[in-house]
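Hey team,

Filing this mostly as a record. A colleague (T.K.) asked me to run one chain through the structure pipeline before their review meeting, and I want the input and output archived in the tracker in case anyone asks later how it was produced. No errors, nothing strange. Just documentation.

Input sequence:
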Amino acid sequence: MFPLTAFLIALAVLYLPGCIIWNNRFDNPAATAAAAPPTSIFAYVLVGILCSKLHIAISAISIFPFTVLFSIGISLFFLIISKTRKTNPSIAKPNGQDFLPLLICIGTGFVFAYWFFSHSLADWSHLTQSEDNIRHYAYVRSLLNSTDWSTLNVSMYGIGVSQSLNPYLSQIGGFYPLGWHIPSAITCALAATSIGIGTNVVNFTLIGISLPLGSYYLISQVFPNESKLRVATGAIVSLVLPASPWVLLAVWPLFPNLATMCLVPAAAALFIDATTDSSAYRSTKIASFILCCGGISVTQPNGIFVCAVFLIPYTVWICSKYAGERQFANILGKDKTKLIVGSAASLSISLIWLFIYKLPPFQGVVSYYWSPISTIWQAMVDCLITAYPIQPANIFVALLCGAGALLLLRKKLFWPVISCSLAVILYVVAAAFGDNIIKHVLAGFWYTDPYRVAAMLAFCCIPIAYSGFTLLLVAVKAIADRLDMPSRSHIVTIAAVLALFIVFALPSFAVRGIAEITTPYSTMTANMRGFTRVEEGAILTDLKIEFLKKVAAITGPDAVIANIPYDGSCFAKGVANLNLLFCNDENYSESTTSNWAIDLRSNLCNYASSNSTRENVHGKNVQYVLSLEADTKNLKLWYPAFEQSNWTGILSVTNSTPGFELILQKGDMALYKITE
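Output structure:
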């Protein structure tokens, strides 16, 4: 059943602070709707840091009203500033016709997103059992347990607390972008629901509401002369491009990256709007662009670079255009002036890109190497048929984008096509290039990960796909006229949206005797079900979840528990709020792990006879040992990083081991208490 209460709370969490800040500050309600989520996220992060610096304890429940009050203060500040300016814009008074497109956009987005989620989740409470999400769920849980919500001191072992249980030598907490985690934690707390429901609902809200609204605002800026109602319905093209958002949810689950991709259209639209608006509202749009970039950077910083790639051709074009309209252009000639200014802008942007690439904070990201998943030619073909990165081709969407690109070229609106071309180049480099400087410079801000770059490519395709959508409207109308059917605009629009929905939701099928057709939709939903399944064979099954909850009832949230993370217990912090010794599933090598952690994982079974082990147990106050899987072959299958020889100290603990008492058992699953 759809968790309606949690959804309404997620809406309030993501939209209320931002709407308060930008209330009546724009001449377009679409700008407010688009800018609200990234602004809200940035406000939460600022409040968390501010309260931490002032030593004010906050919780998942209290941070929401704190941020609302903070947003009211910011709104009043903007109001005072505007009153002191000579060019004070009058308060915007939108009418009902301004809100109708927004409602249409929300409605179509909700239906599309709900259709996907209802077919990909057996239950809204299920966790996505992927490697990255071990960390993300742990961060959400740490926020729920903490009174310090600063993004400057974050680890899997708690937010703003002592890292004494951290087994790693160097990872002792630091800055981490919590822009997705904070709304998720607040939603969980206010709705009094599980982390699974809270995070799934936040993802649903971002995809079904924020992405279409942001795309609507973006498309309206790229095509300012288009009908608002047409743009509102056409914005749904943002949900039929499989690489974004669906790949980030179902093929390579990256929740913060998913969130930032849903926020990027708003920032890009605000930039375009600010550079084309000569009214008194321009300063507001510039300010909102800055705050939106702040929200994106604290969610997943690569969203800033996604926005940059999309806007680079536009920036070069607008700079050359403005230069050609100035009086000094008459000296050299308009065309020559445009060429010089455009070339200078391109060179400047390239130098800025290289400068940022060389900055020390980015070195850990840009130096990461992702092995090729394709050849150059195959990657190029995949882009043409929208089969990137490894999903089936969607020929209809490919034709939609191809026709849209040709239409834009015919209208001499070149920059969206160039933006898409840049994204294609970056995808080919990420997917097909080896470990060289070109790959790191161009794709390094995305960890050279072709999946993340593919999501960027899909975003850059939104204006092109919309252009193709307008041709689809023309085609539908022509067919209706040919068949002597009603061809009123609303009927044509509904028919076009239904066509897109069919393309989006087309299941795999077989043409008997010819071929089996696998569709992106079936691939996405199947992958999502695979990540969220809890039946036998999964890393974390229903039985394990039930057992972990029983363990939590015995140990409480504070008791320190030794465990083998590869048996599914790495998710236990998120699922059952257990205080685990080994929370992560990687990097437990001899060179990265503390001596005390190495001793416990390899020698804990000798607790009764080893003085050093006993000292380490008492020093870390380890009270329990948890085991969820006896078959080490499964551990190696689920996590190739598992090495049995490194974990014999925990694997060897049984009811007959001196110093250990069996407290709870269900099949292979067992909880032992360490005794004197």
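Quick notes for T.K.: The chain has a mean pLDDT of 90. The beta strands are 154-155, 158-159, 509-511, 515-517, 560-563, 579-580, 622-627, 660-666, 669-674.
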